[in-house]
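Hi F.,

I've been meaning to write this up properly since the lab meeting, where we talked about keeping a consistent format for the predictions we share between groups. The idea is simple: the sequence comes first, exactly as it goes in, then the structure tokens exactly as they come out, then a line or two of notes. No screenshots and no reformatting. I'm using this chain as the first example so we have something concrete to point to.
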Amino acid sequence: MIPINMPKEFTKTRLNLPGVSDSNRLLRDMANQEDSCTSRKVDKPLILYGAGDLGKMAKEFFERLGIPFLYVVDASPQRYIDSIVWKDIDILKPADVPSKHRKECLLAICIVTAPYMEICSPLREQGWQDIVPFYDIAEAYTDRIPLPNGWFSGNLESEDIQGLEYVLSRWDDDISRAHHLQFIAWHKVRKEIVFNGADVITNDRFFIPQIVSSLHEKEVFIDGGAHHGEVSLKFMNIVGHKFKKIYAIEPDKQNAKVLHDKLGVNSPSVLQNIQIDCALGQATGKSSFFGGLGYASKISDAGQESVVVRTIDEMDIPATFIKLHLEGQEYNVLLGSIAAINKYRPLLAVTTYHNRDGLWKTPALLMKKLTDYVFLLRLHSWMGTGCVLYAIPRERYLN
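Output, unedited:
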């Protein structure tokens, strides 16, 4: 039985997998807790922690804002000696940071492949006084750069509680309930719940075993938000390059060029299906687009360019597998996809961590509109990110 009173540090307490009733108790306990989420502007000298992918994105983010940082701290700086990204920027080991900087500087954690508390605890022991997740800083500047992965749920109202309880009851396994509660806890109270038997696995995003076991040699794959083609390439490798078609959809011009080159080298026949001039949406038309943010480029009112928007229903692609990673547009795109999904019954892999819609509205939409589907949720990274909803037609589900 899960205790109603949540422990203060979840990384030190592993809870048992929750059933529906336990999930509801833990949900209501979170709803009754005072919100502890706040965005953070840079108000002192800044240092980045982590030189990997998120660290690189943080570097570009702060450069675009004109906010300088002193250097980067990383446990393995030698890995980045030849990196063009970090050319002329110092990367220090934690032990080499001056004690003065540990006391007086703001340290932005740019790693989501490990629990936040496991990263912070040794840093605090080393004397760091001011540590904050990078996305909490990004949340303070969304009026200038729309990078909203640090969103806060705020109060959970009665509609939210009812929606969340509905979704928690509809997941097809307790791991999904555990990951959903972990996701809610981070965005509601910035705490990490850890459950026995529900580890965060970082290397199988979009391709969990239940998806892989369902794939066949005639897949028609829509890669929505294709970025540089990483997911399309992984898909091709998993199916041994035996598939029918790939529709890689990427509206960012810089991303699309890289995408075109990468997929062209690996599978020239795929090129004819790359959509470089449109974005997916709820309705056909045009929309403002904020490009140049790498994999964070998105439809946004703050965007300076216009893109053509099309719906999956209108495109009427006979998709057998749809992946959507759309920086917060997933719910809207699904609204414009329900007819096609019901018509062709594809596998679905949909990111839910870019805005509050992912808390319950996105899964509830599919759970109410689709028939005979299995619904799963998996976290593929920490700090409220990497959350993916999977929907598998029951006739293709091999547990």
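Notes:
The chain is about 30% helix and 15% strand.
The domain at 209-396 is CATH 3.40.50.150 (Rossmann fold).

If this format works for you, I'll send the rest the same way.

G.
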